[in-house]
Amino acid sequence: MKLGIDASTYFEVLEKGPHYSYEGKEIEPLSFLHDHNGVSIMRIRLWLDPYDKDGHPYHGGTNDWPTFLKLAKLANKDGYSVMLDFHYSDFWCDPSKQTMPKAWAGLSVDEVSDKLYQYTVETLKKCVKEKLDISYIQVGNEITNGMLWPLGKLVWHNDKEPRTGYDELSKFLKAGLKACKEIIPSAKRIIHLEKSGDYLLHQEFFDEITKRGVDFDVIGLSYYPYWHGTFEMLSKNITNLQSRFAKPVMIVETGYGFTMADFINTGNNGANLIREDFFSNPENHAYKPFPLTYEGQKDFVKGLIALSEKLHVTGIVYWEPLWLPLPGLEWASKEGEEYIHETHKPTHNEWANQCLFDYDGKATPALDEYKVR
Fold first, then answer.
1. Does the predicted model carry a pTM greater than 0.85?
2. Cα→Cα distances 362→27, 294, 353, Å
3. For a disulfide at 367, which of 21, 163, 277, 363, Cβ 3.0-4.6 Å?
């Protein structure tokens, strides 16, 4: 089983002068994770135009093409193959938002499909020209509820029938998948969902796109137990997907916290997304299989790897293990928040307590478990 990391914010972190250490010695984390831990995949997200009309960056990595290219070259130099994660948006995509790129706004389904195909072809041709080692390509990011909203959104009408919107979504997926196969046929094409503990939802999704002729190579899942449930629920879903669709399964995003204490290295509130009141809020229905401590994070990583090997999962990617809480690092600038209509949120890095390095850049015990054996 292969292991990977998503390090898409790495260059914004480097601008703040981070220090990473293992057993008291300072390390360069990318080469260390590859050479010491056997991590061989770097997942890198790609946004079309993560800037406002005045050129202000959206942050969270500001992952435009130049940033992607620079990071992919660094990854290949350090021995990683790349998992290219097309969001098909100018900023973050997840189940709650799949914002249409500014340049495609107002177009029809057919016009957006054509734009998606052309953009994917042009991007992958540039990857080929730059001789990048691209081993996996995601066509969309966490598209459980569709993509390129409102055109490709999946909508519930009742709990007895599949959601509507699969015709439009499948058209977009086919356009991206076709481009991938034409330009980099060796790369495995991934369809990526979250809610990985909900096997009926996944069954519906893949039933519907399969019957519409969507041809892909790998089922990709996010697994964060806070939102997605127990190991048992995950196992049931993976087993069903493997038997029903005969496709390999990868966990392309995961993570777990080592503390719920707020960091103090920033003036921008310093609160984590996953914290004590997150679990005490009954609206969240949150689940934590282990305490959010150094040992708890270590036990989660150890348990997930053991389970994945048992289920013949082909790979795991740890999400943003290097995103330290340094002053000025943000998941979004105010301009980025405006684009996705989330201006009510603070902008600082809320994910720092999920890293494989603590607030001072010291490797957590989980790092020794996140290792190819």
1. yes
2. 10, 12, 12
3. 363
